[in-house]
Amino acid sequence: MAIYLTKESKVLVQGMTGAEGMKHTRRMLAAGTDVVGGVNPRKAGRSIDFDDRAIPVFGSVREGIEATGADVSVVFVPPAFAKAAVIEAADAGIGLAVVITEGIPVHDAVAFHAYARARGTRIIGPNCPGLITPGQSNAGIIPADITKPGRIGLVSKSGTLTYQLMYELRDIGFSTCVGIGGDPVIGTTHIDCLAAFQDDPDTDLIVLIGEIGGDAEERAAAYVRDHVTKPVVAYIAGFTAPEGKTMGHAGAIVSGSSGTAQAKKEALEAAGVGVGSTPTETAQLVLARLEERT
Question: Domain 10-124 has what CATH class?
Answer without folding.
Answer: alpha beta
